[in-house]
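Task: fold both queries, return tokens.
Query 1:
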Amino acid sequence: MRRIIIWVAAIVVAVPLILSCAVWLPLASRGRPYVVRAAAAAPHRFDARTLLVATDADMVGTSYADGILHPLNGAHDAVSRVALDEKTS
């Protein structure tokens, strides 16, 4: 019985403490973003001659959601190679 009383007391103290922190922390950082990312001074440059693309096309998109493979007749996985010209930016 004593153990139950200690657990109940711990929960009664912990829950309001956790909730108050959950409310106070966003208010304390008001006006500041949660994640600060440094912006690049110059945009990224894509410099390549070839682009390789792997395509997983032999099953429907819901296979990841429901875990059931639904094979599509005539569809095959592929690796494609796309040659890029120098004017591509």
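Query 1 returned. Query 2:
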Amino acid sequence: MVRMTLWSYTMLTDVAQEWVVASDVYDRTGVSMPSWTGQLGGFGITVKTRFGRSNPPYDRQWGADGQHQLCYRMSEQLAEA
């Protein structure tokens, strides 16, 4: 799980400020949508309990790229950190 989640964050940092369509994330990580969302949720719970952070380190928006699916984006400032 950690490898997949880290790879997803690396992908978002590589294209900072650009929306990434959820299906691209699933394809590039090689997992199904239910598996990926479950793993990402588990990672979020770990971050919340360990670091007290309640918001994810990325933006998410439905249909941001004109697609009818969830899109993700990371800020340049966070990508550089």
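Both queries returned. Flag for query 2: The first strand starts at residue 20 and ends at 21.
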